[in-house]
Specification:
The complex is a heterotrimer of chains A (155), B (736) and C (123). Chain A has two helices and ten strands; from the N terminus they run αβββββαβββββ. Chain A is mainly beta and 155 residues long. Chain A has one domain: Beta Barrel (OB fold (Dihydrolipoamide Acetyltransferase, E2P)), CATH 2.40.50.180. In chain A, the strands form two sheets. Chain A has a five-stranded mixed sheet. In chain A, a hairpin with a 2-residue loop joins strand 6 and strand 7. Chain A is globular, with a radius of gyration of 16 Å. Chain A starts with a helix and ends in a 14-residue tail after the last strand. Chain B has five domains: 141 residues, HPT domain (Four Helix Bundle (Hemerythrin (Met), subunit A), Up-down Bundle), CATH 1.20.120.160; 159 residues, no CATH class; 46 residues; 179 residues, 2-Layer Sandwich (Heat Shock Protein 90), CATH 3.30.565.10; 133 residues, Beta Barrel (OB fold (Dihydrolipoamide Acetyltransferase, E2P)), CATH 2.40.50.180. Helix content of chain B is 37%, strand content 19%. Chain B has a six-stranded mixed sheet. In chain B, strands 6-8-9-11-10 form a five-stranded mixed sheet. In chain B, helix 2 packs antiparallel against helix 3 and helix 4 packs antiparallel against helix 5. The C terminus of chain B is likely disordered. In chain C, 45% of the residues lie in helices and 20% in strands. Chain C has five helices and five strands, in the order βαβαβαβαβα. The two termini of chain C are 14 Å apart. The chains are: A mainly beta (155), B alpha+beta (736), C alpha/beta (123). The interface between B and C is large, with 60 and 54 residues.
């Protein structure tokens, strides 16, 4: 186990990387509560398409977000191979539906890069940073991906 | 941790204690009002006010202290028999109790209480007391400052030695010039009272250097010694700059149990000595020629003559016990032991038990599906388990339950105030005070209940003159009762007034366009018109009810709690409102239905009726909508599956199952569903509102198979319904 | 070895405050909520208190009754007992004295005065 204090001192963070669409994303492991297999969600009426519905997480009702749809990559065709990452963002807990989970990376904070300015891409607000690891470009997901933006309303 | 913290907690706990005291105050007053005159009753009332005053003083809550003091003084007068608690007095006491409660709460919430009312009740109290308003004699209203006290209690041992072995003689001398000369001759009673000269000498020592001379000349031979008498006296020379008052203060507790002389040739302020009638010694001459035995020690426990039995002057003891008479009237048994628990912990427990229930249901289902024999050990074990879980759930659900008594007592006050305001005489009777209801339900019930009570006073009970003409007693009675019936809480608000004026109600409804002119309505339907929005029968808009808040608001509040409310009226005799509520807000009685391959739960209290449609019942309204015929009215037909966006409207509704949902305005709508599974009690799980509110959905629950079923808010669905139950077919002619 | 104090008062708030003050001053406290309870606590103490503080107005057994009862117990014949009073009314003090009280403290009490009063009777 990596000593947390060591990490903090070394300015490192641990990332969980996963696949959405054909791209690779990552989340700070500290905000990941658990990873579970896919289960069918109960749909919520009149909800935007990126909200798949709700599932039963050991007696709690958990909202599931189709991350691909949220990122503008079209709706996911769900199957048993999908994975749900349960993420805790400050006050709320949300389940993110992804294609697959890759691995856990330890990276130095100093290696993080700002995402380039690309006004046309709606992904913009959902990516907080980029990192190159093992020749792959990994997008660090911003919490806004899990939480709604200010202007959003369901009805 | 700073010293602030424990005080904040103690203060918070004080306000909780005040609520309890206010409650017992009310209880006591009720008994007195009903004619109870037992000593214990008035004592309880007195102590309640006394304790509130005591605590308030410690926190410097001056307004509260002042009022409580006045109230307490009057109660003390009743206690001692000097004041009679007649009808007027008791009425003032009730008002005082109300003011006291207001002051407590405004102190707690840092708001300002009604000064005028407080003053006027204060005057009433003064009148009863029989003298002018004096500024309250409160000697020490000081802020409580629990600073850390650095007590220097360890005097060095050499001092003790000196106290133990006092000077054998004083130089033949003129009077001691450099300080006080204190002559102290304790009575026998001083020792009996538990006082001890050594402690006092030590305190004097703190003020400055001491020269102590003990006079043992009065000690007789051992054989002649009376163990109950005091034979020692002391002369103390104290060099100190402290003023004489401080010196005298040391002897505060024993001033009446000794002969004390303090002199100071330095001519400090000589304070008059308020000693009880005892011969004054010449206060200028110190006794400087005591004949002393060398070591007259001041050790207390071994030498001083401690009596073996109580000295005579302590026999006149006030036997307070004699007054405690009958307790029966107030409390037949001791209060049950209680524990105070953080509400958060209870909520967690309730949640966990809810999840346990769901889990157990899931296991139940899996076992059924696994085709395990009903007689096997597994099945039997599961049956026991189910029973246990049900019992556990029932117990836990009631943990947050509280008796409705405090709520009902509040209503008592509402009645007093509202009847006073409009010049009617109304009293409150309560039944089933001890009935327990979930805390949250009680909290939400306060407003609707208040309104119903005000209504009863305003519209239900007639004016005193009308009542007399009708042969009724001048004082009207509103009865508030609570009971448990078939798993629900039933609360009734009944008045003995004139009942609902049906012709007038109908007339107003017609005037306001709420009802068609020639509509034929049953008595019950007329009564229910009161629940319609915008309805008010007030001839004069009274202070109370005429602010546009109608019974419709009351009804929706109750429905929001998962309850129902109905009216019954008996012309000439009165009106009764019956509220039926769930025992707790955590579970719901629902109808489990299927819609578009989804399972949903519809709260039972929103469903008026279920019907199966026959062809005849369905009529087209427009190109896209239908109505159905229910007895002699037409009700819009809605397709739940379509309204929720699950699918488009069905082709045909013949044979469809329909739920009649009552809208806020009393009309109905029919929701077509695919099938009804059953009725059951479900545990309510909240939906996160991270992504906004979901329209038409109130909450969710987890079914036995682990799947989530949404709990519908049918009124919301019906209100926002689009209403399409036909798909537009351009070739079809419009139905006539 | 800190001094043991028994404090008897039916108001939870007052008990809490007495407890706080006494503890801060280094005393060990024992609490009871009325006269009857006070006697029970007394019986249960292995070595008696060095002083007792009691309220007057209490249910079941009030302060005067309590002091009487305490004084009847052999070993507590002369234990210092301080009475909590809300007024400095002379007759109250006299009644307290008659019942066997050692001294008094006026409510609301100032911590300094409370400790001082204890000093006066326990040294």
């Amino acid at each position: 186990m990596i000593d947390i204090e060591e990490k903090a001192m070394a300015a490192e963070i641990e990332l969980l990387t996963f696949q959405v669409g054909k791209q690779e994303y990552a989340l700070d492991i500290m905000s990941v509560r658990e990873i579970r297999g896919w289960s069918k969600a109960t749909p919520l009426p009149h909800a935007p398409t990126f909200i798949l519905g709700v599932i039963n997480l050991r007696g709690t009702v958990l909202t599931i977000v189709d991350l691909a749809d949220r990122l503008g990559m079209g709706q996911t065709k769900t199957s048993e191979r999908n994975v749900i990452i349960v993420v805790h963002t400050g006050k709320e807990t949300v389940g993110l539906l992804v294609d697959a989970v890759s691995d856990i990376l330890v990276i130095k904070k100093s290696d993080l890069q700002m995402p380039p300015e690309m006004s046309a891409d709606s992904n913009q607000t959902f990516i907080s940073a980029l990192i190159i690891a093992e020749e792959r470009m990994i997008r660090i997901l911003a919490h806004a991906a899990a939480l709604p933006s200010e202007s959003m309303e369901i009805v | 941790m700073s010293d602030e913290d424990p005080m904040i907690e103690i203060k918070a706990s004080f306000f909780v204690e005040c609520e309890e005291l206010l409650e017992s105050l009310q209880d006591g007053l009720q008994i007195m009002d009903a004619g109870g005159t037992g000593d214990e009753t008035i004592n309880v009332v007195f102590r309640a006010v006394h304790s509130i005053k005591g605590g308030a003083g410690a926190f410097g809550l001056d307004q509260l202290v002042r009022f409580a003091h006045q109230f307490e003084s009057v109660l003390d007068g009743v206690r001692s028999g000097a004041i009679t608690a007649n009808r007027n007095a008791i009425s003032v006491f009730f008002q005082s109790g109300d003011i006291l409660a207001d002051l407590v709460r405004s102190a707690r919430d840092a708001t300002v209480a009604d000064v005028e009312r407080t003053q006027s009740v204060l005057k009433e109290l003064e009148t009863i007391l029989g003298h002018d308003s004096n500024e309250v004699v409160e000697d020490e209203i000081d802020d409580f400052q629990p600073m850390f006290l650095a007590l220097d209690l360890d005097l060095d041992s050499s001092v003790d030695e000196r106290l133990d072995t006092p000077e054998q003689s004083i130089p033949d001398a003129p009077a001691f010039e450099d300080g006080y000369t204190i002559n102290f001759v304790p009575d026998s009673a001083l020792y009996i009272s538990g006082n001890e000269p050594l402690h006092l000498l030590r305190l004097l020592r703190e003020m400055g250097p001491l020269n102590v001379i003990c006079d043992t000349s009065a000690i007789p031979a051992l054989t002649d010694m009376d163990v109950e008498k005091s034979y020692l006296s002391w002369t103390v020379q104290l060099t100190s700059d402290e003023d004489q008052g401080a010196v005298r203060e040391v002897f505060d507790f024993v001033a009446d149990l000794c002969t004390l002389t303090i002199s100071d040739p330095r001519n400090r302020e000589a304070t008059a000595t308020p000693l009880p009638p005892l011969p004054q010694l010449d206060d200028t001459t110190p006794q400087d020629e005591p004949s002393m035995s060398p070591k007259a020690t001041l050790e207390t426990s071994s030498n001083s003559p401690h009596p073996q039995k109580m000295a005579p002057n302590t026999t006149t003891i006030a036997t307070a016990d004699a007054k405690s008479g009958t307790r029966g009237a107030l409390q037949s048994d001791q209060p049950r032991p209680t524990v105070r628990v953080d509400l958060e912990r209870i909520d967690r427990l309730v949640n966990l038990v809810g999840e346990l229930v769901i889990n157990q249901a899931m296991i139940s289902q899996s076992i059924q599906e696994a085709d395990i024999s009903a007689n096997s050990a597994v099945s039997n074990g599961l049956d026991d388990f189910s029973q246990l879980t049900r019992d556990l759930q029932d117990s836990v659900m009631m943990i947050r339950a509280q008796p409705v008594k405090t709520l009902f007592q509040r209503m008592g006050r509402i009645i007093r105030e509202s009847s006073a305001m409009i010049g009617k005489s109304v009293r409150l009777k309560t039944e089933g005070d001890a009935t327990e209801v979930d805390k949250t339900v009680i909290e939400h019930l306060a407003d609707p209940l208040t309104h119903m009570i005000r209504n009863a006073v305003d519209h239900g009970v007639e004016s005193p003159s009308d009542r007399l003409s009708a042969g009724k007693p001048e004082e009207g009675i509103v009865t508030l009762s609570a009971s448990h019936r078939s798993g629900r809480v039933i609360i009734e608000v009944a008045d003995d007034g004139a009942g609902i004026d049906r012709p007038r109600v109908l007339q107003i409804a017609v005037e306001k366009g709420l009802v068609a002119k020639n509509a034929q309505l049953t008595d019950s339907e007329i009564d229910n018109l009161l629940f319609m929005p915008g309805f008010s029968t007030a001839r004069e808009v009274s202070d109370l009810s005429g602010r546009g808040v109608g019974m419709d608001v009351v009804k929706s509040a109750i429905i929001a709690l998962g309850g129902r409310v109905t009216i019954q009226s008996d012309p000439g005799n009165g009106t009764t409102f019956t509220i039926s509520l769930p025992l707790t807000l955590a579970v719901l009685d629902g109808m489990v239905i299927d819609v578009a391959q989804q399972t949903l739960v519809v709260p039972l209290n929103t469903i008026t009726e279920t019907l199966t449609l026959a062809q005849d019942d369905i009529r087209a309204l427009g190109p896209l909508s239908n109505v159905i015929k229910v007895r002699n009215t037409f009700v819009p037909l809605l397709d739940l599956g379509a309204e929720l966006g699950y699918r488009s409207p069905m082709d045909s509704y013949i044979g469809a199952i329909v739920l009649l949902i009552a809208r806020d305005d009393g009309t109905h709508a029919a929701l077509a569903v695919d099938a009804i599974q059953d009725q059951r009690q479900v545990v309510i799980k909240g939906l996160q509102d991270t992504f906004g509110r979901v329209p038409g959905v109130a909450a969710a629950t987890i079914l036995g198979d682990g799947k989530i079923a949404l709990i519908l808010d049918p009124v919301d669905v019906v209100t926002n319904a689009v209403g399409h139950t036909r798909t537009a077919q351009p070739n079809l002619q419009l139905a006539g | 070895m800190s001094l043991q104090i028994l404090a008897v008062d039916d108001s939870r708030t007052i008990r809490d405050m007495l407890n706080l003050t006494l503890k801060q001053a280094g005393f060990t406290t024992h609490l009871a909520d009325d006269g009857v309870h006070g006697i029970e606590v007394l019986d249960a103490m292995s070595s008696g208190p060095d002083a007792i503080i009691t309220d007057i107005n209490m249910p079941r057994m009030d302060g005067f009754g309590f002091i009487q009862a305490v004084r009847k117990i052999e070993k507590y014949r002369t234990v210092p007992i301080l009475v909590l009073t809300t007024e400095s009314a002379a007759d109250l003090k006299q009644r307290a004295r008659n019942a066997g009280a050692t001294g008094w403290i006026v409510k609301p009490f100032q911590p300094k005065k409370l400790i001082r009063a204890l000093q006066m009777v326990t040294g």
